[in-house]
Amino acid sequence: PARVRREWRFVLAAALLLFVPLLGMLVAVQIWPDAAFLLLSAETVGEIEQMYSPAAAHPGRPRAATSEWAMWAFYIANNVRIDFQAFAGGIAFGLGTIFYMLFNGLYIGAVAGHLTQIGFVETFWGFVAGHSASELSGATLAGAAGLKLGAALVAPGRRSRLAALQENGKIAAELLCGAAALTFLAAFIEAFWSPRTDVSLVVKLAVGAAGWLLIWAYLLFAGRRSDAA
After folding, report:
1. Where are the domains of the chain?
2. What global pTM score does this model have?
3. How many CB atoms are located within 10 Å of the residue 23 CB?
4. At residue 226, does pLDDT exceed 70?
């Protein structure tokens, strides 16, 4: 948490790169439904509609996953790939990180916007609410780590770029550890809590809101006494 607070500029920049396009695309699709197809193929749209259909036996479960543990493995692989792209993109002077954060924001917004627009509110939002805080917060920290790497190459100051990269890399690694912890937490929630159909939408939204509150209260306030010391 202390590292997140010290690197708040990079965390904020990563959050804006992810959430501004996400929310913008979500709103845009409500106004212009075909905007989703700017990013999603017809095949992808068919797959997500099938996954989140109110008639789906296991909402949110990919066809390749046959059990909760298979879902867990699928989401671990998917989320780690996204986080790694955001982090490793920093080595391209931060441009890779910026691209992946913007793209993932737009992509998630297109999916959320389309499923909301066609009325799959309960199945989609009920599914994503529980793990949204840990998954998106993890992606944000991975993006912040990538931007920290990029900053070493763009503005090394009086250091050599190699020395700056080594120094910033240690800080980025701490942020990436936080991202990894949140990503693994998200995968567990996504596999074992999110698909439950015996829990009402209101309860799932309440749990999701509590997740956002707890994670960011921890990141913003935990260990402040030791900071002062």
Report:
1. 2-30+69-228
2. 0.93
3. 15
4. no
